[in-house]
Specification:
Elements: H1 2-17, E1 49-50, E2 56-71, E3 74-94, E4 97-106, E5 111-124, E6 127-135, H2 157-162, E7 168-180, E8 183-192, E9 228-237, E10 241-251, E11 256-257, E12 260-261, E13 267-279, E14 284-295, E15 308-321, E16 332-343, E17 359-372, E18 375-387, E19 395-407
Antiparallel strand pairs: 1-2, 2-3, 2-19, 3-4, 4-5, 5-6, 6-7, 7-8, 8-9, 9-10, 10-13, 11-12, 13-14, 14-15, 15-16, 16-17, 17-18, 18-19
């Protein structure tokens, strides 16, 4: 880590000393058409600190929380965690060429990951070429995941237990958007490296797509030579809100080795729908997402490995007070609630016809205080019920969570 910091300091010093063509000093645009913002704009829609002398912007955000949770009356007490600190480095190389990277440090720096590092070439508002480490646009949360944007200390269950949150891979593709009156349309399409056999061969002993995040080799080579396709279309009306449809699919198993056929090609496919809207008369914000997962599980696996999964969440946020505190003229206090559900194994047992369990749902009421739009202090109460594979009475988890998140 010390070496990385020294190299970074040397690079910044070199950039500051260099003479730069003034035409390059362009801050990355938050909106590729300067019109209605879509979830796909979350990549660049972040606050940055821009140096006047160099075409580089720096920024990031930090998240920390404390919690006191218990399951069926058993608790480990109060604990604190620095969930993550994320650094953004962006550069406008040319008016049509921009670069952005996102590096996340989790668990106090024990885990370091490059979540996004892509170069964009803007040929037309409807044709922007992108290459590098790309955040796959499945649903909305995977791209629009920054902690300070949310009123809850934890990411949605659907994003971390069903889909792999902040799921990114190396690849290439294109995106674009266009505004027509009150409407804004956008699309994204990418081919990247993808999943591997760990989604059905993991310590969870279930079909579990997030297990693929543990394989760092996806950033250097494909597991089986077949690219993962991810595509999304979205439409937004200025006075109504946004709805997006996305799909992601590809082969996850190693079906051949050195020309020798090992198995048939087994696919994993995901379909997701996301939506957000604001009831202007009340200021109420609604954000939701639902995903369906289909996996071709080998017949030799037991029924605890589901071939179908689904789940989603709905956030309801209601501002209730705008206090006058010194010069914090944008401060707001809100109440919120998250409803979430994940079924890891949709179907019935072959022998009995009984419904398969392995599901979890939660209700999370919250109170948040935003002294500024980019900083949030939040208190949540989590009530969660987890049912095992056989459908036995659920394990009940409950407790208080509180935390802070802020851009910097």
């Amino acid at each position: 880590m010390r070496t990385v910091l020294l190299l970074g300091g040397a690079l910044c010093a070199r950039l500051a000393a260099a003479q730069v063509d003034p035409s390059l000093l362009v801050t990355p645009a938050a909106d590729t058409t300067r019109a209605g913002r879509l979830n796909m704009d979350a990549t660049y829609d972040r606050p940055f600190l821009t140096f006047d002398q160099v075409p580089v912007s720096l920024g990031g955000y930090v998240e920390a929380k404390g919690e006191h949770l218990g399951t069926d009356g058993v608790s480990e007490g109060l604990s604190f965690a620095l969930q993550r600190m994320t650094l953004f480095v962006a550069s406008s190389i040319h008016r049509r060429i921009s670069f952005l990277s996102e590096v996340e440090l989790e668990e106090g720096g024990r885990e370091v990951a490059i979540e996004f590092a892509a170069l964009d070439l803007r040929l037309h508002p409807l044709c922007v070429l992108r290459g590098g480490i790309i955040m796959n646009p499945i649903g909305a949360f995977n791209q629009n995941h920054d902690g300070p944007k949310w009123e809850f200390t934890d990411r949605p269950l659907e994003a971390v237990a069903l889909l792999p949150a902040t799921w990114s891979n190396v690849g290439f593709g294109a995106y674009g958007k266009q505004a027509v009156g009150a409407w804004t349309f956008g699309y994204e399409a990418y081919l990247t490296n993808g999943f591997d056999a760990s989604i059905v061969n993991n310590p969870q002993d279930r079909t579990f797509l997030p297990a693929a995040k543990e394989n760092p080799e996806r950033f250097t080579e494909s597991f089986n030579g077949v690219p993962l396709f991810t595509g999304k279309v979205a439409v937004r009306h200025r006075n109504i809100g946004e709805i997006g449809l996305s799909t992601m699919g590809g082969v996850y198993n190693k079906f051949q080795e050195d020309g020798l056929r090992l198995d048939r090609r087994r696919r994993v496919d995901v379909l997701a729908v996301d939506a957000n809207s604001t009831i202007r008369s009340w200021g109420t914000t609604l954000v939701g997402e639902w995903a369906w997962v289909f996996v071709d599980v080998p017949a030799t696996f037991t029924q605890q490995y589901g071939s179908r999964q689904h789940g989603g969440f709905l956030d309801i946020v209601q501002p209730v007070l705008r206090p006058r505190i010194a010069d914090l003229d944008q401060a707001v206090i809100s109440v919120a609630c998250r409803l979430e559900y994940v079924d890891h194994n949709v179907g019935t047992f072959r022998e009995t016809g009984g419904r398969i369990g392995d599901e979890v749902w939660a209700v999370v009421p919250a109170i948040s205080f935003r002294p500024t739009p980019g900083t949030v202090l939040r208190v949540n109460y989590r009530h969660q019920r987890t049912r095992d594979l056989l459908g036995n009475p659920p394990a009940v988890t409950g407790g208080i969570q509180f935390g802070v998140a802020s851009y910097f």
